[in-house]
Amino acid sequence: MNRDEIIRWLREEDAAKLEELWRRADELRRQNVGEAVYLRGLVELSNRCSRQCLYCGLRAGNAELARYRMASDEVLACARMAVELGYGTLVIQSGEDATLEPRWLADLVAKVKAQTPLAVTLSLGEWHREALELWCKAGADRYLLRFETASDELFRHIHPPRPGQTQSRFDVLRTAREVGFEIGSGILIGVPGQTFDDLARGIELLAELDLDMIGCGPFIPHPYTPLAAGGEGREVHADQVPHTAEMTYKVVALARIMCPMSNIPATTALATLNREAGYETALARGANIIMPNLTPEKYRRLYEIYPGKVRAPDERAYHGAMKRRIEAAGRSVGVGRGDSPHRLRARASGA
Ligand code: SAH
After folding, report:
1. What is the DSSP code string of 162-187?
2. Which of 52, 305, 306, 309 to mutate to test the pocket of ligand 1 (most atoms within 8 A of CB)?
3. Atom of ligand 1 nearest to the CA of 218
4. Ligand 1 touching residue 146 (CB < 6 A)
5. pLDDT digits (tens, 9 = 90+) for 257-289
6. Which protein residue's CA is at the shortest distance from atom 20 of ligand 1?
7. What is the pTM of this model?
8. Which stretches of the chain are assigned E, i.e. beta strand?
């Protein structure tokens, strides 16, 4: 699919025509990653952040937020919960916590790997090669870093670089792959300033980056950020991508078509916009992963990247409900790590 075709689908509003897009994505999902929906347990390690991203509620400039970092034992308890619930992966996510000691995290990863059969995914922002290498050697399997938007100029606007910083998110992803990680990236859909051409270019980039995981979710304005609703920070033009559930389904479907063998989650931000059917709809349009939150409640409410995040007060009850929803959608809960077929194939051919 070329850029113009992608843009045509992104702009398509005729429900009958869109059925064709949904059908193609669902068919490719079935052929390439099958019926299983893999669940990944999410642990929100720390909401400390040294960056000033215009879109994110964890930004250093948000003085309203009480900051925390979980203790090792608390993370290990989440890992045990993930095992008890039958998950194959623990995703450790965090603000870009400059006070995080790489060695401490490496020890924690090593403990999770020694005590459980879980795959470990890290999503900690932009780190240097030494840290990535240390974590990979400690046993971490995957690194997740969204490039958020394809336009370099817009990215630097919404994600101001550190003084003197030259490495881009693409450099970090490349390094993560070089040191041995499976890599994932994705797009923040409809962030103010993002045009249809940017978004289509982003979808092409997902394929060019040869990703194992692709996470795309709608931008949701956070009141304590410069991009709070109504304060878009720059002129909103006719070509602005809307930050809607519908646009997110289109991106999920196009990502599946462009990257048939990747793991593609139905994201929490999407489920926040459509609580009743966001997960099911994305699963029917290309997605094959869901990431239930295992963070202890006292921290979870402080990890407010955007407002109104779907809450799951009791992990076990939530898990039961999620399993029923997946089965009612005609799918099954995946067993095991759920490595991407994309990666498994590359490994088998010695890449
Ligand atoms: N600090 C790490 C990981 C945490 S943020 C990092 O920057 O990679 C994880 C993702 O949340 C980001 O990649 C971004 O796409 C998403 N996010 C941030 N603010 C958001 C908002 N206001 N609405 C929706 N998603 C948001």
Report:
1. PTT----HHHHHHHHHHHT-EEEE-B
2. 305
3. 24
4. yes
5. 999 999 999 999 999 999 999 999 999 999 999
6. 56
7. 0.96
8. 36-46, 89-94, 119-123, 142-144, 182-185, 188-189, 213-214, 217-218, 289-290, 332-333
